[in-house]
Write a structure and sequence with these properties.
47% helix; 2 domains; 10 helices; Four Helix Bundle (Hemerythrin (Met), subunit A); alpha/beta; Ribosomal Protein L15, Chain: K, domain 2; five-stranded mixed beta sheet; magnesium; 13 strands; four-stranded mixed beta sheet; globular; metal ion binding
């Protein structure tokens, strides 16, 4: 259980929520853990199966506090709110910004700044543990990402932002073979490929990114935003463009870090994959389970949220960023603050 941005996050299975006076009382295994005044809340997010009294749910609805429920894997299930009001206003603000080239550019640029900054930090952290002959290449790639970050400040339109993001992604993935250690060097990586992935490392990346995209889509829906209307990614039928936007800054610290941890520790090997007739490389069933367990475990790890100045878990980061994006769209923040790894 934690609170941030006027939101109560429930993360412990079996938590009971009830109302005493004008306060939400949080109880776990018959022990009172917290009391939060209703007037301090905008939302309640249940990331684990929790029990809420009808009296409290009624009070939340009347006070305009929406309650969101997520499955144990982070999949968005439902959002309970009263007569539509704030949600409509938020989505109208989202749509207005999406149609405003200047404001769209500012948000898209911020998201790419977050992506490149976190990718750079990932490479610098990897450099510390790399063998001597690989350190120079990792440092050079990090230096190139720094240059792209400076160039982003001078971008004047969305196409320039997208172009720089593409160039930076190429520079980033180019040094991935240098992140492999020991027996993991049996994995072959000749650059990013997808739809379908044609080698085991790309299969892992694609699978991890798909999980992260669903987490981001659920977080956005949970705060009342439309996951399909984005700023960096173009709108297309069936595409959750805003979820793809939000996940950009989390790709390196969440998925890429996990992928290389699993292969370098020998938890996943090239033999854990199969090649389909059309050439697509897929995880075998046991390997998929290994990755899913590791992914859910990684979401429990603690991380410092620099902008908020507090510790949180990786699993809460998409939800916190969705809340910050909503505030930026409402005009409560000067701009969108992307998540930054230090």
């Amino acid at each position: 259980m934690t609170t941030a941005l006027n939101t109560l996050f429930i993360t412990v299975e079996g938590t009971r929520l009830n109302k005493e006076g004008e306060r939400v009382v949080v109880t776990i295994q018959d022990e009172k853990k917290a009391e939060v005044p209703l007037r301090h809340l905008r939302s309640v997010v249940c990331l684990a199966r929790a029990w809420m009294t009808p009296e409290l749910l009624e009070s939340c609805v009347e006070a305009g506090i929406h309650v969101s429920f997520f499955g144990m894997t982070g999949r968005f299930l439902a959002r309970v709110e009263g007569m539509p009001g704030g949600n409509v206003l938020l989505r109208r603000a989202q749509f207005r910004v999406a149609d405003d080239g200047v404001r769209t550019l500012a948000i898209a640029r911020a998201m790419v700044v977050g992506k490149l900054g976190n990718a750079r930090q990932f490479l610098l952290h990897a450099r510390r543990d790399a063998v001597e002959e690989r350190k120079a290449a990792l440092e050079e790639a990090a230096h190139r990402l720094s240059g792209h970050l400076r160039a982003l400040e001078r971008t004047e339109d969305l196409e320039q932002v997208r172009g720089l993001e593409g160039i930076a992604a190429r520079d980033y993935f180019e040094v991935f073979p240098g992140l492999l250690k020991g027996d993991a060097r049996r994995f072959v990586f000749d650059g990013r490929n997808r739809r379908p992935p044609r080698d085991p490392l790309n299969a892992l990346l694609s699978f991890g990114y798909a999980l992260l995209a669903q987490d981001c889509a659920g977080a956005l829906a949970g705060v009342g935003l439309d996951p399909a209307v984005g700023f960096l990614h173009e709108d297309r039928p069936g595409r959750l463009s805003l979820a793809l936007d939000l996940m950009e800054e989390l790709r390196a610290p969440v998925v890429d870090r996990l992928v290389f941890s699993l292969v370098n520790r020998g938890q996943l090997k090239p033999e854990d994959f199969k090649t389909e007739a059309a050439g697509a490389v897929m995880l075998k069933d046991d390997a998929r389970k290994t990755f899913l367990v590791a992914y859910q475990g990684a979401k429990q790890a603690e991380v410092q949220h620099v902008f908020l100045g507090q510790q949180t878990s990786w699993g809460l980061v998409p939800h916190l960023q969705a809340l910050l994006l909503a505030r930026a769209l409402r005009g409560e923040l000067d701009g969108y603050p992307p998540f930054a790894v230090r």
